Amino acid sequence: MSRSRGVQMSSKYVTFSRNVFIPVTNVCRNACAYCGFRAMSKEDAYIMSVERFMAIIRSVKGRATEALFTSGDSPELADTRFRDWIRRTTGFSSTVEYTKELCKLAIKEGLLPHCNLGILSYDELEELRPLNASMGLMLETTADVEAHRHSPGKAPELRLEMIANAGELKIPFTTGLLIGIGEKPEDRINSLELLKSLYDEYRHIQEVIIQPFVPKQYTPMCKAKPPDLELMKDVVRTARAILPDEIAIQVPPNLTSPKELIELGASDLGGISEKTIDYINPESPWPSETELREMIAPFVLRERLPIYPEFINRGWYSKEIRPLIERYADEEGLRKRRTDR
Question: Is the four-CA dihedral 335, 106, 24, 307 of positive or negative sign?
Fold first, then answer.
């Protein structure tokens, strides 16, 4: 695939999703050397209450279309007491069961769920599928890096298996690479080629995020150097050369210089929230829609749903969320413009 084809694709328009960020719990079995999201102590740990959740999603009613659910990886494996804690505080026996209930509430309030909850089994993916417009899991890297030494959930084989399972279940899927955590250039190529092979088999990957590592205070990698723009440009260029045009390359506009990456083939800016911070990178505020338009001009900005148009056309969604997709999607499968509502 030539690199120019990626530029032609991105010149049509650049997409983003208007979302609300819901961190269900920050309890996590992994201890990644760069992570500031994971609870570092019992006092820092939380499970989001239904009351807090409802207040957040009602604050974006009529504006956002996506409820982005995140959590620590396999919190039940992080602490033997977690299952008892979630049962006492929510009435549900697991993070997945509780998140299912929150997904149902989000749908009732007019939001399309997108769950990124770490490693999930085939059965858990199947259980969540009817209540999600799309789902996700960052591959990050296929390399054996020091940053993942204490993170069993970051084993590449586990993550690739889950991405494959999502393909078998026909779940529109988001994945991505985390750049600058100790991987080498050949590792990035290997990661991208493996994602391409999964797409070739299942046709389910809708976007691949190219995300830079950002140092966090009080983490082992707090003084590590983040990737510079030239490295990010090289990775986007490589990704566009390897991945099929049908897969969008996403770059986070609060962490990168998006216009220069769009010129190399990136075509999506991910989810932008008006009411919630980026809980993974809280030191990096999201730009507003107006700021986004100015940042990427003369490229045209279009709003999308958490499920991409190709998968709407294929009918890869359930009867549970069909009414919302019909309400929000225009004839192209993107978000209806305000004049259309």
Answer: negative
Take residue 32 and report the two structure tokens written for it: 């990644």
In contact, 263 and 26? CB cutoff 8 Å: no
Q: For the chain, how many residues are written?
A: 341
- Return the number of other C-beta atoms located less than 10 Å from residue 55's C-beta: 11
pLDDT category at 339 given cuts 50, 70, 90 is: low
Which among 66, 201, 53 is positioned nearest to 136, based on CA atoms? 66
Q: What is the pLDDT of residues 216-232, one digit of tens each?
A: 999 999 999 999 999 99
Compute the distance between CA of residue 281 and CA of residue 98 in angstroms, rounded to an integer.
Answer: 25
CATH tag, 3-334: 3.20.20.70
List all residues 6 or more positions away from 309 whose beta carbon is below 8 Å from its beta carbon: 329, 332, 333, 334
Please write the tens of the pLDDT for every residue from 152-163.
Answer: 999 999 999 999
Question: What one-character DSSP code corresponds to residue 236?
Answer: H
pTM of the model: 0.94
Amino acid 338: pLDDT: 62
* Cβ pair 303, 269 in contact under 8 A: no
